[in-house]
Design a protein that fits this description.
470 residues; mainly alpha; disordered C terminus
Length: 470
Amino acid sequence: MNAFVSGYAPTRQDLRGLLKLAAPIVLIQLGMMLMGVVDTIMVGRVSAEALAAVALGNLFSFGIMIFGVGALMALDPVIAQALGAGDELAVSRGLQRGLVLAAVLAVPIALVLLMVEPALNLVRQPPEVVPLAAGYVHRLIPAVLPFYAFVVLRQTLQAHHRTRPIVATMIAANVLNALLNYAWIFGNLGFAELGVLGSAWATLVSRWVMALLVLLLGWPHLGPYLRRLAPNVLDPKPVLRMLWLGAPIGAQMTLELGAFGTVAVLMGWLGVVQVAAHQVAINLASLAFMVPLGVSSAAAVIVGHAVGRGDAAGVQRSTSAALAVGAGFMSLTAALFIAAPRALAGVYTTDVQVIELAALLLPIAGVFQVFDGLQVVSLGLLRGLGDTRVPMLVNVVGFWLLGIPVSLALGFGAGFGAEGLWWGLVLGLAMVALFLMLRLKHRQSRDLVRIIIDEQLPPALRKADGALAD
């Protein structure tokens, strides 16, 4: 990180601004993650099969939906840079086009989710788990549209540094989700016992509430941009340019999640205990990951504002601050995972076999924590600059050309099983972090160029993106 700090050490004001925005975003990310953690813990009390079914169901559904989430994150540079430049019309167009894209993307994503059962059978998942996982995913399909709408509204509010409506929404949604899980999984409060399917229904209802509540609570800030249709907002060319900018983000997130998902699928080849232990360990690692992910989102906004203002020094100071905070926090969680793996695993399940295997995986997760923090913060910084294509290619190389082959070689070729599969993830994350930081250093040596979606020629967008200009 010295390459970023030299000459551009962050001031107290830079750190204060980053932490002030990052702290509530971290709470939001933790709230998103907590819903899945609560689902996993509560279903884990039913059986190992139920735990594995929810793990596979969440893996498949979010693995498909993540492309749309990433594509909608084109709003980060579009809206943040527009705000930095004082271009309110571009903000209105960005938000409204984001909602259009959310509706458009929801249709093909929902159709793909219908294919869950043959997909899980194709990758040889445990036959006793597949029907439960498929039933779980099918009931989440009506939640795709509200979830995408929530992402659009969340990104817009974050770009405005207005996070209270999102935090309040996440608190309410988590309380509701836990209550509905309690009632519908176990048959409490007069409801029938639905098990895995009860958890799916709880998630469906909670996601609709999230979209509607964040719109209601955020209306004082969102209303001025939504009351009237912005000029040319439905012009297909700018909408396609937003998709052109966002699709690589979606692809990058899909590739990264796909790498972790592939390891989960390979765990299924080893057995139900391995799937359940992987789910426990990855839940804990993902929970810690929410903090640098929140820092990454905050950094994308702050850098986007700086690009809009034409403040190159501010971009570099924010870069140094974000990398230091992300890596520092993940160093602490790495120490925790290495020091107390069995105690952490015991929070999720009472199954002795699952606890023992998860306790072997968690120290490995501790090793990749710092790399994970650096790579996700670098992604946010690059997104704020409008650089979306090279990070996608970096994921292909780091995870799919290096990490996954090593996972296969160690897990099956060398016979190390679940632990070998996870060591491949360590290598993939380390390489991705290194490549992204080199890319970030290169981008910051160039002039700042604001992304303007309503320019007429796609090459202007490609120049701003920077991926094809090198």
